[in-house]
């Protein structure tokens, strides 16, 4: 296990929801696992005026509830709390950053990681203030949470400002989907075994479907969501990154830049959208009132902070195509939405059926094999095959092999932020997004955004608790395909 050197991790937005729900619990688990050095320090930075004891009380109230009870240990929690300090920091207050610098000291041999869990509007100012008080050392690194801008221009502006202070190898653009165990196992299956690679092309794969479905609505994030929408919030980053992992060519090594070079090739090979393509190959939707898990819910336009005439999409479906020899004629169907019937994130690789079935029950025998990589709610993999049904007739029946390796390794799977935070501290950039990747992703989605805005047409509505607008089914049904739940 690669060690972690002495570090100071500063979490800007240290009183925020992400810090309480994900970041500090992840660090607690790594503390319990013995992966953090004894002198590793965690400094929460927030705008609220409180002392260290006040923050620890706040942490105990807000973060502890997000820990798994089976893994909670009171003495470990107290020992973990000893690592934590709090500093009041306003992004526009130079004096606050001088106090932070005094608290950190000037040991340039320590890893110094700054996690910006704030609005991207503050990224540039925070980085400039860190530079002004000489906290950007050769071993310093900065972690950027999404969304990075609303389009290519605003994303470039943020990256230019951060890049003026930190070198590219010091910038960690985080996408927590890349830290999930099934995504890691997908890479292991593809590039660590000889079984799948001969099948991983248009000769054997019929289509790929990537679904990120949520049951929740916008909750208290109405104002944020009005400025963002599903395309920016989910497709441009999470879904596109999953697509890259599925479609990339085998890298020559696991070196971070070599892996990211291969992902960039996929992004550059994505077929660009014309205005006509946007009409025929995309669907945008917006949820209306309905019921989720038997509970009535309001429509998007009735949510707090939402303009009653809003055209912001809460659902997106896209037929994507990759212009390479490996993926010629293989459609990639992408979809995401809120207030859907189930909460599920999965990648489904549908293989082509056998060219000729020799068995009875031909319709069942022609069911294609598929590999399902599920990221949530239960992480794991399944390989779906056809096998003979017990009995005196040669009838085939779909069965699946569970490829979840947790039973084999008898160990708890790490949460995504556990893995990614440790990679930040170790200096491993493999699972983080490089700037040219981010730029390429924006270039691909911008024509969709522009065509939607120019058309002036409202999103297609769908009832909360369903699988989205009927147009999304029509999009895939036109190609004689179906979504998994329609199977």
Structural class: alpha/beta
Give a short account of the largest sheet: 9 strands, mixed
Distance between the termini: 43 Å
What would you call the shape?
A: globular
Q: What's the CATH class label of the largest domain?
A: Alpha Beta
Q: Tell me the total number of β-strands.
A: 17
Strand order of the largest sheet: 16-15-14-13-7-12-11-8-17
- CATH topology type of the largest domain: Dihydrodipicolinate Reductase, domain 2
Name the poorly predicted regions: none
Tally of DSSP helical segments:
15
Gyration radius from CA atoms, angstroms: 24 Å
What's the SSE blueprint?
Elements: E1 7-12, H1 17-32, E2 41-46, H2 52-62, H3 74-81, E3 84-88, H4 94-104, E4 111-116, H5 123-132, E5 140-144, H6 152-163, E6 171-173, H7 181-192, E7 205-213, H8 222-247, H9 256-269, H10 275-281, E8 282-288, E9 290-292, E10 295-297, E11 315-320, E12 332-337, E13 344-351, H11 362-365, E14 370-376, E15 380-388, E16 396-402, H12 406-409, H13 416-426, H14 435-455, E17 460-463, H15 470-477
Parallel strand pairs: 1-2, 1-4, 2-3, 4-5, 5-6, 7-12, 8-17
Antiparallel strand pairs: 7-13, 8-11, 9-10, 11-12, 13-14, 14-15, 15-16
Helix pairs in contact: 1-13, 5-6, 6-14, 8-9, 8-14, 9-14
């Amino acid at each position: 296990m690669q060690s972690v050197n002495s570090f100071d991790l500063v979490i800007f937005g240290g009183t925020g929801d992400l810090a309480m729900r994900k970041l500090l619990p992840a660090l607690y688990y790594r503390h319990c696992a013995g992966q953090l050095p004894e002198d590793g320090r965690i400094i929460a930075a927030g705008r609220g005026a409180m002392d260290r004891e006040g923050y620890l009380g706040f942490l105990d109230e807000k973060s502890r509830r997000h820990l798994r009870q089976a893994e909670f240990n009171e003495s470990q929690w107290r020992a973990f709390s000893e690592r934590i300090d709090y500093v009041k920091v306003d992004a526009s207050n130079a004096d606050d950053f001088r106090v932070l610098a005094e608290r950190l000291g000037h040991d340039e041999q320590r890893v110094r990681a700054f996690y910006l869990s704030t609005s991207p509007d503050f990224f540039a100012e925070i980085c400039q203030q860190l530079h002004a008080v000489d906290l950007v050392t050769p071993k310093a690194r900065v972690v950027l949470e999404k969304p990075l801008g609303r389009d290519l221009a605003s994303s470039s502006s943020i990256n230019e400002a951060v890049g003026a202070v930190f070198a590219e190898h010091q910038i960690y653009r985080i996408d927590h989907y890349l830290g999930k165990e099934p995504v890691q196992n997908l890479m292991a299956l593809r590039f660590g075994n000889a079984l799948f690679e001969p099948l991983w092309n248009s000769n054997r794969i019929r289509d790929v479907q990537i679904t990120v479905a949520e049951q929740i609505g916008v909750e208290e994030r109405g104002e944020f969501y009005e400025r963002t929408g599903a395309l920016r919030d989910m497709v441009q980053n999470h879904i596109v990154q999953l697509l890259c992992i599925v479609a990339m060519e085998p890298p020559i090594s696991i070196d971070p830049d070599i892996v990211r070079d291969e992902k960039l090739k996929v992004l550059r090979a994505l077929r660009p959208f014309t205005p006509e393509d946007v009409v025929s190959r995309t669907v945008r939707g917006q949820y209306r009132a309905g019921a989720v898990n038997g509970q009535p819910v309001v429509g998007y336009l009735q949510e707090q902070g939402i303009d009653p005439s809003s055209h912001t999409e809460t659902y997106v479906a896209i037929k994507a195509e990759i212009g390479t020899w490996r993926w010629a004629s293989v459609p990639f169907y992408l979809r995401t939405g809120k207030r859907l019937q189930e909460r599920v994130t999965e990648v489904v690789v549908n293989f082509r059926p056998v060219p000729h079935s020799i068995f009875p029950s031909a319709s069942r025998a022609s069911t294609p094999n598929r590999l399902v990589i599920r990221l949530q709610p239960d992480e794991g993999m399944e390989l779906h095959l056809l096998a003979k049904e017990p009995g005196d007739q040669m009838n085939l029946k779909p069965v699946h092999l569970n490829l979840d390796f947790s039973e084999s390794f008898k160990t708890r799977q790490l949460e995504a932020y556990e893995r990614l935070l440790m990679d930040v501290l170790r200096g491993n950039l493999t699972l983080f997004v490089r700037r040219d990747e981010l730029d390429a992703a924006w270039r691909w989605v911008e024509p969709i955004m522009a065509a939607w805005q120019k058309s002036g047409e409202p999103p297609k509505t769908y009832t909360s608790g369903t699988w989205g607008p009927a147009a999304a089914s029509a999009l895939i049904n036109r190609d004689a395909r179906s979504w998994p739940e329609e199977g």
